[in-house]
Specification:
The chain is mainly alpha-helical and 481 residues long. The protein is built from 21 helices and two strands. Helix 4 packs across helix 8.
């Protein structure tokens, strides 16, 4: 009857789900209504009324409706927004409040499940492309568009829904992985630029979508815990893990640094900005500066984004500074081989990070140390203790340190998570930052500069060789060199 709790629940759920809820007692009359896109037929006993004890019934109804929905995340957000509306005059207010509470819980759980499952969907999944459903990358893009309110359909995820979703994600490791994947995939889109001067545009577009998510303290707390997991997983692998798997890896991999001189570098579209300069091939300083300006701005935007995120992570209570320093220590330890001889560079590059990645990491560490010299430098420098590297509390491992005899230091230290993430430290944060930065410059920046000069000398030799032997323009390079 109209006005009863059951009637309010049925009509209220019909409003929330956007389809008619049909109840029956005994055997259902016909099966055609059960398959209808505009109806969900359920026994009267399966009608949810209590938000706590009937949570499985709410989820069942939601899954029944999602089977007929194409844009799942959009629908879930719309359902959550409807559950915040006031009760209609003919509805039982208490019953409406209960079903709204129960449906919100179900929506949060299903949304998180969609994000967790998105990590396991291949990027080139055939059925996702054919059916137009959310693939691994598409589902994260759709989520960030909803968070940012830029999905083009007028649907935006309410801040309270995002907070509830992050609180639920913080309860288990699968939720942690989902949040990490969202950040990693959000920054990965930056690398889709065609010309190197498009970095700033792509970075602005991608990083702005992540800002509302990373402003939530719940998201920062989750990412702080993810750092500890990344340390353990990376030490069981090699330094290439960070660029491939870390949520910081993609934004730190954005770089104009050339890893290897090839024909694509010279004649490809990526660096064509320099070939189309006014007056080319007669270059001017002002012309080069105008070309380099958007590239610098794009790189600086990515570096500053990574620095601000790391800064937020250090402020997480109890674990923040320890996990951040442990992550940087793992990057340094696994890249110690970069200081090896040049004749082993090809083999070393397969197990170490790229020059562009370590240069960006150096930027973050140097930025963290900047305050030591700009704000009361004397008092701050006095807090740095020189005995750190010889202490058992030191996070660094020097077994890969090269000796004059072309060997390595013979130490019994192993690369373990306990070494990078000690439970307690005898030194202050400034001391550890200083020594980690010093070591990072040794294994990161100095080899990167050496590689850049070697690449420049090699490229000039190739250019001269082509000009002298083939009598061709310098930018036309054969495949045989």
């Amino acid at each position: 009857p109209v006005g009863t709790r059951e009637w309010t629940a049925a009509t209220g759920l019909s409003h929330l789900l956007g389809c008619e809820i049909v109840l029956y007692e005994g055997n259902p009359q016909g099966s055609s209504s059960r398959k209808s896109h505009s109806k969900i037929v359920i026994p009267k006993s399966d009608l949810p009324l209590n938000p706590t004890t009937d949570q499985k019934k709410f989820q069942f109804l939601l899954f029944q409706r999602l089977g007929k929905i194409k844009n799942i995340l959009n629908f879930l957000v719309e359902c959550y927004v409807k559950s915040k509306q006031r009760s209609k005059a003919e509805w039982d207010p208490e019953c409406w409040s209960n079903i709204c509470c129960g449906m919100r819980e179900a929506v949060i759980g299903v949304t998180l499940e969609q994000l967790i499952q998105g990590e396991n969907i291949p990027e080139d999944d055939f059925w996702s492309m054919v059916l137009g459903q959310d693939g691994s990358v598409a589902i994260y893009e759709a989520f960030l568009d909803l968070v940012d309110g830029q999905n083009g359909k007028g649907t935006a995820m309410p801040p309270e829904m995002l907070s509830e979703l992050l609180c639920r994600a913080a309860e288990n490791k699968f939720g942690h992985r989902a949040v990490s994947s969202i950040v990693r995939n959000g920054t990965r889109q930056i690398m889709h630029f065609k010309r190197i001067d498009d970095i700033y545009f792509e970075a602005s577009k991608c990083l702005s979508k992540l800002s509302p998510l990373l402003e939530k303290s719940e998201a920062v707390n989750i990412l702080c815990n993810v750092l500890a997991r990344e340390v353990e997983e990376s030490l069981a692998s090699n330094a290439t893990y960070f660029e491939a798997k870390s949520f910081l890896g993609q934004v730190l991999a954005v770089t104009p640094v050339i890893a290897k001189f090839s024909q694509d570098v010279v004649a490809g579209e990526k660096y064509s900005i320099y070939l189309t300069m006014k007056g080319f091939p007669q270059l001017t300083v002002s012309g080069l500066n105008s070309c380099n300006l958007p590239v610098r701005q794009g790189i600086n935007k990515c570096q500053e984004f990574a620095f601000q995120l790391v800064r937020k992570l250090t402020k997480v209570k109890d674990l923040g500074k320890n996990n951040v320093l442990g992550w940087f220590a793992a990057v340094i330890i696994l890249n110690e081989k970069r200081t090896g001889p040049r004749y082993e560079s090809e083999a070393i590059s397969k197990v170490t990070s790229t020059d562009g990645f370590v240069v960006n990491v150096c930027y973050i560490m140097l930025k963290m140390m900047q305050s030591l010299y700009t704000i009361t430098p004397t008092s701050n420098l006095e807090k740095i203790l020189p005995e750190y590297t010889g202490s058992p509390s030191c996070r660094l491992i020097f077994k890969e340190e090269k000796c004059l005899a072309r060997g390595c230091l013979d130490t019994a230290e192993d690369s373990t998570a306990e070494k990078c993430l000690p439970k307690t430290s005898d030194f202050n944060f400034m001391t550890e930052c200083f020594h980690l930065t010093q070591r990072l410059l040794h294994v990161g920046l100095i080899p990167a500069i050496d590689h850049a000069f070697h690449l420049l000398r090699y490229s000039l030799c190739v250019v001269l060789l082509v000009i002298c032997t083939n009598d061709q323009p310098w930018f036309v390079i054969g495949s045989g060199w």
